[in-house]
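Below is one protein, fold included:
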Amino acid sequence: MGTQISMAVQSAASGLAGKPGPSVPEAGAGSDGAAAFRLQLQFHQQARIDGQQKLAVPETGRDSLATVMADRAAGLAGDVNRHQQYVSRLLERATASADSMQMMKAMMALNDYQLRVQTISKVVSKASSSVDSLTKLQ
């Protein structure tokens, strides 16, 4: 009778979930309650182990968030370095020539460089705080 009750409970639970429930092995008709309990316990332990294996964190691949962020940060660092060298060359030429147009062009490039560095700094700061918040939620 206990097996019939457990089967009824499982079928009701699977009906509520909208999917078929796992089939529980039944104990033989001549076995006692302890053997049936052991069989049920082994089944549920195996189901729990299988469920935990499905929840295991997959290995990080080529397109993981950390890889994408690191690649983008390296690319931005290279871009900022090239921009800084360009601004330095413009400033050197402007001071050597003492031309007001060259000086204006160099100052605009310097302003653009400063704005770009500040924007990147702000975005990286916000991204790192967002990642920290997400990892705290897990």
Notes: The radius of gyration is 33 Å. Residues 38 and 53 are 23 Å apart (CA to CA).
